[in-house]
Amino acid sequence: MATLYDLKPRFQAWLRPLSERLVAAGVTANQVTIAAVLLSLGYGALLAVNGTSLFLVGLPIVVLVRMAFNAIDGMMAREAGQQSRLGFFLNEIGDVVSDTALYLPLALLLAPEYPLVIGSMIVAIALTEFAGVLGCAAGGTRRYDGPFGKSDRAVFFSVIAIVAAVFTLSEQFAVAVLSIALLLAVATIINRVRIAIVEGQDGG
To answer: pLDDT category, 10, cuts 50, 70, 90?
Structure first.
């Protein structure tokens, strides 16, 4: 299934000069990965404490910077020979931590009376990444299939943040949108597992 992840090569090409400058300056891929996590944790904390329109509008910018960091650390790892086991774990765990740090405060701000929906959505989002990694464990490749991959989630929640900053959203509308995110995450888990199983059968 098509996903915004398919646009990653173009995004990386735009960021490659910056990646090369960071390598020349002695910055490592793991440091960039950690910076992305710290950025997400810091802004998520600000959003949780002060969910004003200003911080809502700022969320898409932070998400874009985080995605840029994620693209850059991957290029540095592959193209500058900085791949490592530690980097693999930092990257995978960091994605889940960053998603939770940014999207949980936003969801709680929009629909505080629906913790079950919000909790289920956050768990499902985390499981999409778990399902993707399991593709490797099953003898195949790391799965990035949609419809609700990391890039898709970034756009989805960025749009929600902007709309919430401009308009007053009813809690019922907000929980409906978050429920859609939950369903998309579940569909992504199923899709990644399904394709990983087929990939394993073809490989076997």
So the answer is: confident
CA-angle at 130, arms to 189 and 180, nearest 5°: 40
| Cα 31 off chain centre by | 18
Does 4 score more than 90 pLDDT?
A: no
Q: Are 106 and 52 in contact (CB under 8 A)?
A: no
Section 181-187 average pLDDT: 98
The predicted model scores a pTM of 0.93
Q: Read off the amino acid at residue 152.
A: D
3-state SS, 133-171, equals HHHHHCCCCCCCCCCCCHHHHHHHHHHHHHHHHHCCCCH
Residue 168 φ then ψ, to 5°: -90, 110
Beta-strand (E) ranges in 13-125? none
CA pseudo-torsion sign 69, 131, 5, 106:
negative
State the residue for tokens 């398919």.
Answer: 6
Domains of the chain, each with CATH number or no CATH? 4-203 (1.20.120.1760)
- Residue 199: pLDDT band (50, 70, 90) is confident
Rounded to 10°, the helix 53-79/150-166 angle is: 160
